[in-house]
Structure prediction request, 237 residues.
Amino acid sequence: MKPFGILKLGDYPGPSPVREGDYEDWFIASMGLSEEEVVIFDPRRGDPFPDPLSLQALVVSGSNSMVSDHADWSLASEDFLRRVHAAGVPILGICYGHQLLAEALGGKVGLNPRGREMGTIEVRFDEAAESDPLFAGIGEVLEVQSMHSETVLELPEGAVVLARSEGDDYQALRHGERAWSVQFHPELKAPEVSKVARDRAAAIRAEGLDPEAIAASTRETPEAELILARFARLARG
Prediction:
């Protein structure tokens, strides 16, 4: 079987307070894969992009960077995502990956006019999710971990909205038949979100939010983590 690709575009800020590894390791664990079933590539360090048809599926990570900065490695990743999407390879974009996939396909990304979305939040699934191959049966409301300042401002043509939150109308999207993205982080544990809230306390306070209250109110979201396992099963056919 072809390997699952992980397009690594960022790093969790500092060591996790509860486990070893980084985003790519947590994706692998949540999808129930072994390291031998995965190929990881990071364009920030100059890794080449694989042939899209050499991949079983692709997961695109979050990042501390901003899509709107249009870094060279980010623009190159957009081009790669267009090729992966055109090849019909299943894609799951997460946070930065969600935004980057939307921009790659013709959408627009920028600062969320509703402000930063941080902590454990509720997302509500639209009617379209009821028949979606990835989200069908997941329920109407799901608690998830969120931490982002930018968002998808304009959808690319043909995008289907699958879920929303109070702070973001585009929490989950489908692009065509085999590409999905989520603004939230299904791979994160509550203490990892709390750590980021405390680490970025000054910036969060400057925006009128209470970082300590955000950190203290995070809750575990095991059902959200199952989205990664669902994606792996779907990609395997």
The chain has one domain: 4-236. Residues 4-236 form a domain with the Rossmann fold fold (CATH 3.40.50.880). The mean pLDDT is 97. The longest strand covers residues 117-125.
